[in-house]
Structures are given as C-alpha cells and as structure tokens.
Amino acid sequence: MRVLSVASEVFPLVKTGGLADVAGALPGALASRGVTMRTLLPGYPTVLEKLDTPKTLRRISGLFGGDARLLGADVDGLDVLVLDAPHLYERPGNPYIDSLGLDWPDNAQRFAALSKVAADIGLELLPRYRPHVVHAHDWQAGLAPAYLAYAGKKRPGTIMTVHNLAFQGRFPAELLRPLGLPQKALSMDGVEYFGGIGFLKAGLRLADRITTVSPTYAAEISTVEGGMGLGGLIGGRADLLSGILNGVDEAVWDPATDPYLKARRRGNGLAWRGRNKAALKERLGLTTPPENMLFGVISRLSEQKGLDLLLAALPRLKALGADLVVLGSGDAALERAYLAEASKDPGRVGVFIGYDEPLAHLVQGGSDALLVPSRFEPCGLTQLCALRYGSVPVVARVGGLADTVIDANEMAIAAGVATGIQFAPVAREPLEHALARAADLWRQPKIWRQMQANGLATDVGWQRPAAHYAALYRAVASDDR
Ligand code: ADP
After folding, report:
1. Ligand 1 pocket, 96 CB below 6 A?
2. Which 8-state DSSP code applies to residue 269?
3. Domain identity same for 277 and 391
4. Is 16 in the pocket of ligand 1 (CB under 6 A)?
5. How far apart are CA 308 and CA 374, in angstroms?
6. Ligand 1 test: best mutation among 9, 137, 300, most atoms within 8 Å of CB?
7. Are residues 331 and 241 in the same domain?
8. Is residue 444 part of a domain?
9. CA 15, CA 18: separation in Å to the nearest integer?
C-alpha cells in the first residue's frame, strides 16, 4: 500500500511544533505494516539545505506565479518529495510568518500549491508513482482532498488529519479562480467557509475520512463549543471521524541513548535523573538544594498553552517549596513576564526563551514533574516524552492530555496505576490545587517512584497508533492503482 503524506513541516527537516514530529515519525512506524509512505513538503531554504543529492523528478511550470521542481530525496530513511518553488518558499525563518510575525500575504497560494501538487501526484503526475491514499495534515494541506474531489477522475482515497483546529486557513472568496477551484466549489458542501474559502474546512468536508490526534479531542471538536466554527460540520461527519493518539519517536526520545542527557537511563534505577536535574539547574542558574522539587515546562508560549495561568500560580508553586524551569518561545508579553520572574528570583526560576532541542531533552530528563496546563490540547507530545523520561506529568484534563495521563486519584494510587496528575477546569485555582497535590505526592517517595515507574513502562511509541492508521488506509484505499 502506497500512501502520500502531505505536511507543511516534517522533522528533522523543519519543525515548529508537534505536526512535524508526527509527519516525521509516521513513515517509519508504518513500514512494518505493509504501508510505504512518501512525504511531500515545501522546499523552504532550511529544507533544501538539508537534502543530500536530491533528484529532480518533475518540472512544473506556472504554479501560482512561478516555475517549480519536484525533488526526491532520502533523509535518514525518510522518503521525501520536496516542492522547490522559490517564488513561494525561498524566504528565511518561520514557514508561516515573516520577521514581524505576520502571516505571509500569499499563504493561500503557498499552501494551495502544496495541496495542488499533492493532488496531481495522486492523479499520476509521477508516472511510476500512484499512491492508493493521500493523507493531508492540517489546513496547509487541506485543499488536497478538494482538488482531488473536483478532478473528475479516478482518485486515491483521502484522509484529513486535524492536528490543531485553531489554525484553519481562511482566505477571501475572490481567490477561488486564482487557486484553480471550480465555481461549484464555493458552496457549503465544498470549500466555502463564512463567505470565504476555508482550507481546513475544505479538507474536513471533502476527505473520505477525518482523523484527529486523540479520542477526547475528537469528541471536543465535534461540538459547537469546542469546534471553533467547524463543530457542526465535524459532528455531522462523526461516523467518519476517528481520534488516533500520537506516539513519540522512540529513537529520538530514548533516555537510554539520549546524547543530550548528562546521564542516561540504565536499568530500572532512577539515579540518572538526579544527575540530569543537577545539570539542568546549573544550566539555568538555579541554586537551590537537590531536594527542592523541580517543575518543568517545554512549550510554545501562547494562550492555548495556559502559561498565563502558571504565571498567576507561581507564588503558590514557590510557597510549596518548589522551583520552576521554563523553555519556550512565542507570545512576547509572556516571554517578558517569564523573564521578569526569572530575574526576580534567579535561584529558583530558570527561563530560557528560544527553541532548543537539546535543552528540551534535559528538561525531560531533569525535571521532577512536567507541567502542561493547556486550555485545549489536541494530543500533546511533551507529556508523552515526560512519561518516557520519568518526569511526572501534571496536566489539564483536556484533549489528548486527558487520554494519556492516569490521574493519581486515591483508587489509581491504590491500584498502582497512576502516571500523573490531571486538573479541571483549566483555571488558576485548580492548577494551584494540582501543584499542591504534586508536591504532596513528591513527599511520599514510594508513591512517587511508583508513578515514575508506571510512566517509564507506558507504551508511548508509534506501534499502536500506526496499526490504527494502517487500518484506516486500507478502508479508504482506491483499488484502481
Ligand atoms: P504544539 O504542536 O501545540 O506546539 P506539542 O506538545 O504537540 O505542542 O509538540 C510540541 C513539540 O515541540 C514537542 O516535541 C516539544 O518538545 C517541542 N518544543 C516546544 N517548544 C520547544 C522549545 N522552546 N524548544 C525545544 N522544543 C520545543
């Protein structure tokens, strides 16, 4: 079975968030299940420079205002197709926004091009490659199922996966023709969305199946309250919707071999964590004794992630005798606020603003508990890594966080199955209560160690999710290939 996966970011070529991790890990996870996955992504400079001897597979002329090439390459075993279209992608920095933080004004064309080429590959742009399924990720690939649906030809099966419903790709209706969509597409059953064109909406309406990245998020986005404008549409297609949890890449996130850790995991002992904690504290300038409990955060700093609530709860965290390290970037006001907290109390609050993969690993290996107070969270990856690294996740009971952490309530502790702490609703007081519960359990080493051991034994890999995807591909695959 051949599946073409289409994504705007793919680890290790380009990453701004969890989508890249998922798109990068899926092909490897599916290989043993009879699924051969190729991945199409845009040729941003950072991607092109990482390609070793790419092959030009096809020249494409007149792709939304310029000529392009489809390149094929192998990147650490990933079979990638890279759309090299300099007029669309040859820009520095973040894939979606300019240096002022504004969306590129031609994002509609940039990601319609990705989707159009994906659809064309589905319709035999490459003579020797005919995928059975086109799997589109997020709004940037959302038009792929639409182009295929309107092609009027035998087409591959299509799957639309929502990694984050907050990003929808909305553009003016006047772009219909310039984007090469037929007039009839501008309808409720097509790409039309609140009078304009909705890329994600198009994919959700026109793909054969919809998936999102956890069962609870699937339920949340099927409702008017959680659907961010798309709840009616998604709820109406609920029989075609599934929630498949993400895994983590177990080769990248392996405490036994992790090159970024000061000390690596050996056997079932936990002494290695203490050395990482010391290294982490030293790196961020924390000066408290090793016995102080250390909370960690690795996150985009945004409204979604609830880190304003953590700021408000910080006095309580400190009153509990605990310390905090934060690795993140994003919202300028939050960045400033966390830096201010660190300079107020540098020995107990360590903040690193920026994106730092090695430091993320050290926070996982060195913090005692990992905080994820998100207002909504489709799946969340950091709490999965935390389980694998023996940092106890303290999470909001939403989306994938609700599905992946077993709350240390009395029964779960008695049964010896707890892996973390959940709180609800997502507000300052419940968060403070969760911090206090965590600090209390931390002072009960037997229970705490059991929770860590449970986390370390949790299967957070890709094999289970991969089985779900493989079954879904089989269900929608076209049989004319
Ligand atoms: P989202 O995709 O919403 O940002 P996820 O939890 O799904 O959130 O994925 C976030 C990914 O990005 C994780 O792999 C996490 O380790 C990583 N990450 C987030 N912020 C940083 C940062 N500042 N430095 C390094 N890695 C980060």
Report:
1. no
2. -
3. yes
4. no
5. 10
6. 300
7. no
8. yes
9. 8
C-beta 167 within 6 A of ligand 1 = no
- Band of pLDDT at residue 481, cut at 50, 70 and 90: confident
Asked if the peptide bond before residue 425 counts as cis, ω within 30 degrees of 0, the response is yes
Ligand 1 pocket, 382 CB below 6 A?
Answer: yes
Question: pTM of the prediction?
Answer: 0.95
Cα(324)–Cα(336) distance, integer angstroms? 16
Taking the CA of residue 17 as reference, the ligand 1 atom at the shortest distance is 2
Q: Hey, whose CA ends up nearest to atom 19 of ligand 1?
A: 299
Token pair, residue 272, equals 């290695």
The number of domains in the chain is: 2
Q: Are residues 236 and 383 in the same domain?
A: no
Beta bridge partners, 227, equal none
Kindly give the interhelix angle for 307-319 and 428-442, rounded to the nearest 10 degrees: 40
Beta bridge partners of 135: 5, 159
Judgement on whether residues 160 and 305 belong to the same structural domain of the protein: no
Q: Give yes or no: residues 438 and 472 share one domain.
A: no
Both tokens of 135, joined, read: 């799997």
Three-state DSSP at 278 gives helix
- The range of the structural domain enclosing residue 18 comes to 2-247+463-478
Q: Are residues 469 and 429 in the same domain?
A: no
Query: CA 357, CA 17: separation in Å to the nearest integer?
Result: 12
478: confidence class by pLDDT, cuts 50, 70, 90: confident
Residue 12 shares a structural domain with residue 144: yes
Alpha carbon of 283 to ligand 1 centroid (Å): 20
Q: Is residue 14 part of a domain?
A: yes
Ligand 1 neighbourhood includes 95 CB (under 6 angstroms): no
* Dist CA 72 CA 129 (whole Å): 12
By residue count, the chain amounts to: 481
If you compute the radius of gyration of the chain from its CA atoms, what whole number of angstroms results?
23
Domain assignment present for 252: no
Domain co-membership, 28 together with 171: yes
pLDDT tens track for 250-301: 988 999 999 999 999 998 899 999 999 999 999 999 999 999 999 999 999 9
Residue 9 belongs to domain with CATH number? 3.40.50.2000
User: Has residue 414 been placed in a domain?
Assistant: yes
Each residue of 321-361: pLDDT tens digit? 999 999 999 999 999 999 999 999 999 999 999 999 999 99
Whether 227 is in the pocket of ligand 1, judged by its Cβ within 6 Å, is no
Distance 160 CA to ligand 1 centre (A): 22
- Per the CB < 8 A criterion, the answer to whether 311 and 337 are in contact is yes
Nearest Cα residue to 115 out of 75, 185, 173, 63: 63
